[in-house]
Structures are given as C-alpha cells and as structure tokens.
C-alpha cells in the first residue's frame, strides 16, 4: 500500500525467449490489476546474471521483454514498466535483507536446489541469495499482491517471512505481500515431459512453445506433445500430458475443463492437439504483431525505460530511506 493505493508488483527475467508458461502463468494476468492497483512490472536483469549470460543477448532480451510487456496489453501510462538495474535501490535493499534472511531458509528454496544441480560449475552466492533480491524488489514498493506462476510461490512466501521478521524488529516498515497464482495458468508443463515445468531454459525446443513462435511451429509442437495411450480427452490421474493440454486450451479459450471434455467427446487426441495449437496461435498473433511494431522503435523503448525508472525510483527511494533510518544509518 502506497498513499492508500494497493500495489501489484511482478517481474520477468530477460534470460531466454519467453514461453507460453510465462504468458499464461504471469504476464497475461498483469494487465487485470491496472485499474484497481498501482502496478509495477519489472524486467529483472540483475536476477538473470545468477546464471551466465552472453552480454549482447542479455541487452537484446531486456528490450524484447519490455516490448513484450507492452504487446501483452500493459499500457505504460497505467503501469510502471522498468528495468531493475536502472533503480539502484533494489541492490541496496537486497544487501540489507540478506542480513535478515537465514542461511537455512535460503537452503530450502527448491529453485536454488534445481538451478545448482543444473549449473554445478557455477553455484555462485548470487544464485543462493536470489530470493532476497526478489524480496527487495517486492518490498521496496510496499506491495500488496504479487501475480506469479506457482513456481515462484515459495519465494514470495520467504519474502513474507523476511518482511514479518523485519517488521517485528522495526514496526510498520513493510507491507506484507500476498502471492496471486492465476488458477488457470498455475503451471504450464513441458510438451515433451509433462511432469516438468515448461521452462525457457529447456534445451529441447519442442518441449516449449515460445510466445513468438509462428503458427506452423506452434501447431507442429502441439501435434508432437507427449500424451498417453488412451484416446479420450478427459482429465485424469497420471494423464499429465492431456491434463496440461486441457489446461492450456482452457487458458486460451476461457472454456472450463468440463466444456472441453464435452467439445471433444468421441474425437481423438489428434484433433484435440490441433485445436489447442490453433487456439494458442490465434491468441498469440495480435501479441506478436504489436511486439514487432514496438521492437522496431528502440528509441521509444529507451524513452519508456527512462520514464519507468524515474517513476519507480521515486517509490523505491522512499522505502529505502525509511529502512536506513530505522536501522540507524547516519543520513547526511
Ligand atoms: P521467471 O522469469 O522465471 O518467470 C516469469 C513469470 O512466469 C512464470 N512462469 C510460469 N508460470 C506457469 N507455468 C510455467 N511453466 C511458468 N514458467 C514461468 C513465473 O512463475 C513468473 O511469475 N524470480 C522470478 C522473477 C522475479 C519476480 C520478482 C517475480 C524477480 N523479482 C518480484 C515477482 C516479483 C522469475 O525467475 O521468474
């Protein structure tokens, strides 16, 4: 809550090509908060360097992620859209919060365990303290709600614990945020292994549908999606592939699982997969069109970054200054 206005905050890493998991689990829902909340949506480039990035790719993807935010319906007049490294308060508050976060808490984070298994040659301290930087992002803006996919819920819960611990020592410092997990886009699974999250870092490109894939590619990927040996389009235990496709179709069409089961009664998986691919491609076509227009004007994107950074800094400065005063840092 800032000036009696509830705040929505979220972020996306510019660390790869964004997937329909990022879209359905997070970005698509961001715009729905614009009317009732003061909204901040960040391109979290500082988080991205916890795993090695090629500098030119990181730079390009930072522009692309901002353009995608806007192409997905985030109006920069109604939402503060900015890049994390442009607001230095994030890194400063993260340091302070590191001193209020326990080693054991960070050790329990499943994303840390997964990523350190995947990048065994680079288990750096930043990867370990990643969640305190994320807590700093959220707490700087006195955030009430954090729309994220279910994989980020544990981080938001740790952020709540850190905020409560800090508030106990220094009352009324931070708003304690709530994660908002959209029911439909909770967790979009890999098309090649539907027991695994669809992830932008997956090496198998057929496992992942990117927001910017063209229609033929999208349809081909859905056609190849791993399912099971049954033929009936129905939710069921152990039917991870079909459950995932029903979830995706439901997100893109707004239909309930029951409606979908009825629609495909007596029709095979082949027909269903084609329908999912078409619904996905049709829904993404206007986003892709808008994205291409926005990306063509780099100057406008840079102007947007600057405006977003100025807006965000105003809020971030206020919270950081309050925290520093409470801690006993001398102000000059
Ligand atoms: P990131 O960049 O991995 O993902 C961005 C958002 O997309 C969601 N998501 C998914 N949702 C459903 N199914 C999937 N397969 C899927 N894959 C990704 C994520 O849950 C996320 O909401 N740590 C965050 C970024 C971050 C952040 C923040 C988020 C940094 N600071 C502050 C919220 C608030 C991350 O790595 O997201």
Distance between the termini: 28 Å
Q: Major beta sheet, specifics? A: 3 strands, parallel
**Relative strand content:** 5-15%
Order of helices and strands: EHEHHEHHHHEHEHHHHH
Rg, alpha carbons: 21 Å
Please identify the structural class as seen in this structure.
Answer: mainly alpha
Q: State the shape.
A: globular
Mean pLDDT: 96
Bound molecules: tryptophanyl-5'AMP
Poorly predicted runs? none
- What spatial order of strands do you see in the largest sheet? 1-2-3
Number of strands: 5
Structure description:
With 332 residues, this protein is mainly alpha-helical. Helices cover 53% and strands 8% of the residues. It has helices at residues 20-30, 45-48, 55-71, 89-98, 103-107, 110-118, 125-140, 153-169, 215-223, 240-253, 257-263, 269-295, 298-327; strands at residues 7-12, 38-43, 79-83, 145-148, 178-181. The strands form 2 sheets. A 3-stranded parallel β-sheet has the order 1-2-3. A two-stranded parallel sheet has the order 4-5. Helix 8 (153-169) links the parallel strand 4 (145-148) and strand 5 (178-181). Bound molecules: tryptophanyl-5'AMP (TYM). Tryptophanyl-5'AMP is lined by residues 9-13, 21-22, 25-26, 44, 47, 134, 137-138, 146, 148-149, 151-152, 155, 185, 187-188, 197-198.
């Amino acid at each position: 809550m800032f000036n009696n206005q509830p705040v929505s905050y979220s972020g996306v890493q510019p660390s790869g090509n964004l997937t329909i998991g990022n879209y359905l689990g997070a970005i698509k829902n961001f715009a729905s908060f614009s009317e009732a909340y003061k909204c901040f949506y960040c391109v979290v480039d500082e988080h991205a360097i916890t795993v090695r990035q090629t500098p030119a790719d990181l730079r390009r993807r930072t522009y692309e992620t901002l353009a995608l935010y806007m192409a997905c319906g985030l109006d920069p007049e109604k939402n503060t859209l900015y890049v994390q490294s442009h607001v230095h308060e994030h890194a400063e508050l993260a340091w302070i919060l590191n001193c209020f976060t326990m080693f054991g808490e960070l050790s329990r984070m499943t994303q840390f365990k997964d990523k350190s298994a995947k990048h065994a040659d680079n288990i750096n301290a930043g990867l370990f303290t990643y969640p305190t930087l994320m807590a700093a992002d959220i707490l700087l803006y006195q955030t009430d709600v954090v729309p994220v996919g279910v994989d980020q819920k544990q981080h938001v819960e740790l952020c709540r614990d850190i905020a409560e611990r800090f508030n106990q020592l220094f009352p009324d410092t931070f708003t304690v945020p709530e994660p908002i997990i959209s029911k439909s886009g909770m967790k979009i699974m890999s098309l090649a292994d539907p027991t695994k999250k669809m992830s932008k870092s997956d090496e198998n490109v057929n496992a992942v549908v990117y927001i910017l894939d063209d229609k033929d590619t999208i349809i081909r990927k859905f056609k190849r999606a791993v399912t099971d040996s049954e033929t009936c389009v129905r939710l069921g235990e152990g039917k991870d592939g079909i459950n995932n496709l029903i979830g995706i179709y439901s997100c893109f069409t707004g239909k309930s699982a029951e409606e979908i089961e009825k629609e495909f009664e007596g029709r095979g998986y082949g027909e269903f997969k084609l329908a999912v691919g078409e619904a996905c491609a049709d829904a993404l076509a206007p986003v892709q069109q808008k994205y291409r227009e926005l990306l063509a004007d780099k100057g406008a994107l840079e102007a947007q970054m600057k405006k977003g950074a100025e807006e965000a800094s105003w809020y971030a400065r206020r919270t950081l200054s309050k925290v520093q005063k409470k801690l006993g840092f001398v102000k000059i």
